[in-house]
Write a structure and sequence with these properties.
Elements lengths: L1 E6 L11 E8 L8 H15 L5 E7 L5 E8 L4 H14 L9 H13 L5 E8 L8 H8 L6 E7 L5 H10 L3 E5 L2 H13 L6 E5 L8 E5 L3 E7 L2 E6 L4 E6 L7 H13 L3 H11 L2 H8 L4 H16 L18 H9 L5 E2 L3 H6 L14 E3 L1 H6 L1 E2 L1 E4 L6 E12 L9 E14 L2 E2 L3 E5 L2 H9 L14 E4 L8 H4 L4 H28 L7 H5 L1 H9 L2 E2 L3 E2 L11 E11 L8 H5 L7 H22 L3 H31 L15 E6 L2 E15 L1
Length: 679
């Protein structure tokens, strides 16, 4: 397969008499955070800088039957026009509910048909989410109504439906652009106001048979076209050339092959991309694509290809001696969680970079004053790997003080603590660019040896800024050789460790129960109840009342569901102690754990160290549990993010195996199920 470049005959460019610029803006619930910022930019910048000969339309949309016109084909000429535009923008551009793409497209078409001017038309469609109202066929059918006009879709943020927005652009012969946040989106809008390259469309007869059903061109971004019956459809008249894949002997230029890599990566034609990368012989592009797993990785590769094609970045060459990081992020985070020396610092830079996940709660007026010395030293890294979704979060416990409101108990302040959770990876997307850490010597050495961007000198007093943006998410060598038997074995091992902890914790509560001097004893029951109303308890620290806000928006994602037959839950220790033999599968796990406890505790009991031993053993079991969970989570990332399957299974339907652990057989199965993910 080769890339074919077809030159197009240029028509004499006719000067346009202005452009009708139509901006379609997503007002679904998931836009709650950014819409206020976008509103301000539209008011202060866009409506005041649009050219006198251009007209402006702004449409909004959310759920089905929730779409409309904010500004209708208006030329803005004076202060009164600007004020009127500001008022309607404030009134209508607010987050509402779900996400539906179809209706605003038909409204845009009606606006265009009603426009009797000679202006050209440009439509920009922006969304940060996934359509949960219409089918793909309905969306693409609607989008084809805009095929005669300049059309651009904006993938707003990593949560947007990249594939659908790209397919919409292709259906109308347009381009799809990624905007990470409101800053890059606003920058695009400003550039769009200066874009005069707005032309009509034509169908282009192809000179060679096309291997695929798409073709492309480049004009400050990749334009995609449907290809059928020997034609590239809806190609702008201003296009100088188009590209497509053929089986001819045509030899494309190196930079044209680079552009093709970006296109074929969008289309998940990975074998073709690797083949072209072999011809291009660029070490940097090859490294990026070899470590391309998530949507975030793919966008980075596409951007790198476009920068090389446009000449903004030079080829790196095969002899590039730059060291690229080969420390997979999931391995790095797993190593951090198992190293007791490492700590995380919640610096101002980290918090500014952190992408807040949701508008879940608003705290009460009480101000938590964190312990400054503890914050400077850093917090122990308690990482949580989701067992069903490609998510990794860190939980920190912060000690501090709260100044109390006036009360009858003589308390002006109280020492307490609070928990904070920070999502490092969500849905396979890195949620921060850098981590601020105190490192052990071992972890620092691993980072240095694996090419990570970090201060090469070690000092246990240093705060290391670790750039995780350039870390590959996964280890490609490992994910290409996933083994289902090992995976299921780990799940059974996790059940064993859970059974061990359940038994050991049962005896710990008898031998060395956790005791705390509760607020009832220290302050009295009445004061304790008052503190509880404020959200302060001795057992849960400061967890104030909150007002829940739901965006009402959602998307459908994949979740891993693993079943171990007859082991959906573990019975109580008492239940198994009272039963003599003839155990079920799950009861036998507890019975074996009891036997292990009796055997292992006898030596400590003889030495009179049973209390110390049981506490230490519970901690050791928890550590083993965490290690097994980490291994399972790494495979789950490969299944959901890299879309891999087990090398020893014949497709998704082949999803069950029987594994033997400690002489017992366990029947295990796995499936990827659809799950509604609330935004």
């Amino acid at each position: 397969m080769n890339i074919y470049k077809q030159e197009l005959t240029q028509e004499t460019k006719q000067k346009t008499v202005g452009v009708h610029r139509i901006f379609i803006i997503d007002c679904s619930g998931s836009m709650w955070q950014d819409l206020p910022l976008i509103r301000e930019h539209l008011k202060k910048k866009i409506i005041t800088t649009i050219k006198e000969e251009d007209s402006l339309s702004i449409l909004w949309f959310s759920s089905k039957n929730q779409a409309g016109i904010v500004i209708k084909n208006k030329t803005l000429k004076n202060l009164a026009d600007y004020q009127e535009a500001e008022d309607v923008i404030d009134r209508w551009l607010k987050p509402i509910s779900l996400t539906g793409f179809v209706e605003p497209i038909y409204i845009a078409k009606e606006l265009i048909q009603e426009d009797n001017s000679n202006r050209a038309t440009s439509v920009v469609f922006m969304s940060d989410g996934w359509d949960n109202q219409w089918t793909k066929a309905q969306i693409l059918e609607a989008t084809k109504n805009l095929k005669d006009y300049t059309f651009t879709t904006i993938q707003y943020g990593y949560g947007s439906d990249k594939k659908m927005l790209e397919d919409m652009a292709q259906a109308a012969g347009g381009k799809s652009i990624f905007s990470e946040n409101y800053l890059s989106y606003n920058e695009f809008l400003e550039q769009e106001l200066d874009n005069e390259n707005v032309s009509g469309k034509i169908d282009v007869r192809l000179e060679q048979p096309n291997v695929y059903d798409f073709a492309w061109a480049y004009d400050n971004g990749i334009l995609m076209f449907d290809s059928e019956d020997g034609y590239a459809k809806n190609v702008p008249k201003s296009a100088k050339s188009i590209f497509y894949c053929t089986n001819s002997s045509y030899v494309a230029e190196r930079k044209d092959n680079v552009l093709a890599c970006a296109v074929l990566a969008k289309k998940a034609k990975n074998d073709d991309v690797f083949s072209l990368l072999g011809k291009i012989n660029d070490r940097y592009l090859t490294f990026i694509f070899e470590n391309c797993f998530s949507k975030q990785d793919l966008l980075k590769f596409e951007e790198a290809c476009e920068l090389v094609y446009s000449g903004e970045v030079e080829f790196s060459g095969a002899d590039d001696d730059k060291v690229y990081c080969n420390y997979p992020l999931v391995d790095f985070l797993s190593d951090l969680s198992e190293d007791e020396v490492c700590k995380i610092l919640l610096t101002k830079e980290f918090l500014a970079d952190y992408n807040k996940i949701s508008a879940s709660n608003y705290e009460s007026e009480l101000k938590f004053k964190k312990d400054i010395e503890e914050a400077k030293k850093g917090y122990p890294i308690n990482l949580t790997f989701s067992m069903s979704r490609p998510n990794i979060s860190v939980q920190v416990r912060q000690n501090g003080t709260i100044d109390l409101p006036e009360n009858d108990f003589g308390l002006s302040a109280i020492k307490t603590f609070r928990y904070r959770n920070y999502s490092i990876v969500r849905d396979g997307i890195k949620n921060v660019k850098k981590l601020y850490l105190r490192l052990s010597k071992d972890i620092h050495m691993k980072l240095a040896l694996k090419g990570a961007t970090v201060n090469p000198y070690y000092n246990d007093k240093f705060v290391y800024v670790v750039d995780i943006e350039n870390m590959p998410l996964l280890d490609r060598a490992k994910i290409n050789n996933l083994n289902s038997v090992e995976y299921f074995y780990n799940h059974v091992e996790l059940l064993n460790e859970k059974a061990m902890y359940k038994v050991h914790n049962y005896y710990r509560n008898i031998l060395a129960p956790k005791r705390s001097e509760g607020f009832d004893i220290v302050y009295g029951e009445e004061c304790s109840n008052w503190l509880k109303e404020l959200g302060i308890t001795d057992y849960n620290g400061y967890s104030p009342p909150y007002v829940s806000f739901s965006s009402k928006d959602y998307y459908i994602g994949k979740e891993v569901k693993v079943l171990v037959k007859s082991c959906s839950s573990l019975p109580s220790v008492k239940q198994v102690l009272n039963k003599k033999g003839n155990y079920t599968v799950s009861q036998k796990l507890i019975a074996d754990a009891i036997s292990s406890y009796v055997q292992e505790s006898s030596f400590a009991e003889q030495k009179g160290l049973e209390k110390e031993w049981i506490v230490k053993e519970c901690n050791a079991i928890n550590k083993r549990k965490r290690s097994v969970v980490n291994e399972i989570a790494k495979t789950n990332f490969a299944l959901m993010v890299a879309k891999k399957w087990f090398a020893d299974m014949d497709g998704y339907e082949d999803n069950s195996r029987t594994v033997t652990v400690n002489g017992d057989e366990f029947t295990c199965s796995i499936e990827l199920v659809d799950k509604k993910i609330n935004l």
